[in-house]
């Protein structure tokens, strides 16, 4: 292998990540695999992230910095990196995450080359801040190659609400030619951008490899996060995009899952408004009344009436267009889960003092 050739382009989008960038970038620089370029995409940060990046760039010629004037979100930042990437492979990592295995990129690259896979995925550990309290792992039971036709028929469903595979773009070594073949376009969303990327890519893949080894640390610092005003709008946008993909690829098996997910999106939006006090009771009822008239929810009636879906109290209230009852159901759920939220927030605050 030519020691000067760029094999992997590491794309790191970030916004005000000064607290974490050192750990993230260091975990890449120290990798045993050296034929890389590190593309730091500064998405309009207002903290001292830029100074941290410049310090690293002055010490390592493989680092290139792109400074965006305004914050446009992870989706746009990643595509900015893709446009200038020179490697044969692409690896996305967020600026507040890190790799904890010094040989992981080398293992992914060698496996991709040997097996000619379109992407190789490693296990993702959900870590509370930097304290390595692992909340979850996305791992296969053993290393496995999944090829077509099984890959498309049985695993494309992962991106319609039945997750057999991780929907994240992080922790995967993508073959760049596969991305180019798919001609992936940004959807202009702030929520679910990873899902949108993989929805477009997956039909163009021939085979993938799942490693049974963890290596990507995903920092879950959002336990005290704010209400997300983009959630409902972006989830609707994704629903319609999924509809396009179902029609394009005649993937009818995904239809029930998208409908169940649509119901859960509405429920989540109401719960979030309650938790973060986005309006009075009357305001939220008015929002619900207006929202359930959106034509998008007519798709819920495409679920077979004999299924248990229609005996769910939330669905019954929705069918009756009872906004007050919908609010009451969501309010009870918020109260029921309040102790769990409280304990998580306390843990997060303690570990960050």
Brief write-up:
By secondary structure, the chain is of the alpha/beta class.
Set down the secondary structure blueprint.
Layout: E1 8-14, H1 21-29, E2 36-43, H2 49-59, E3 63-68, H3 74-84, E4 89-92, E5 98-99, H4 104-115, E6 119-127, E7 134-138, E8 144-147, H5 150-155, E9 172-175, H6 176-182, H7 193-201, E10 207-219, H8 231-249, H9 255-275, H10 281-291, H11 313-319, H12 323-351
Parallel strand pairs: 1-2, 1-4, 2-3, 6-10
Antiparallel strand pairs: 4-9, 5-10, 6-7, 6-9, 8-10
Helix pairs in contact: 7-8, 8-9, 9-12, 10-12, 11-12
Architecture overview:
This protein is α/β, with parallel strands linked by helices. The chain has 12 helices and 10 strands. It has helices at residues 21-29, 49-59, 74-84, 104-115, 150-155, 176-182, 193-201, 231-249, 255-275, 281-291, 313-319, 323-351, and strands spanning 8-14, 36-43, 63-68, 89-92, 98-99, 119-127, 134-138, 144-147, 172-175, 207-219. Strands 1, 2, 3, 4, 5, 6, 7, 8, 9 and 10 form a 10-stranded mixed sheet that branches. Strand 1 (8-14), helix 1 and strand 2 form a beta-alpha-beta unit. Helix 10 packs across helix 12. The longest helix has 29 residues, at 323-351. The protein is globular, with a radius of gyration of 22 Å. The mean pLDDT is 91.
* Class computed from helices, strands and strand pairing: alpha/beta
Output the radius of gyration.
Answer: 22 Å
SSE order in H/E notation? EHEHEHEEHEEEHEHHEHHHHH
**Gap between N and C termini:** 47 Å
Portion of residues in helices?
40-55%
Q: What is the general shape? A: globular
**Number of H/I helices:** 12
- Please, what is the average pLDDT? 91
Can you tell me the residue ranges where pLDDT is under 50 for at least 5 consecutive residues?
Answer: none
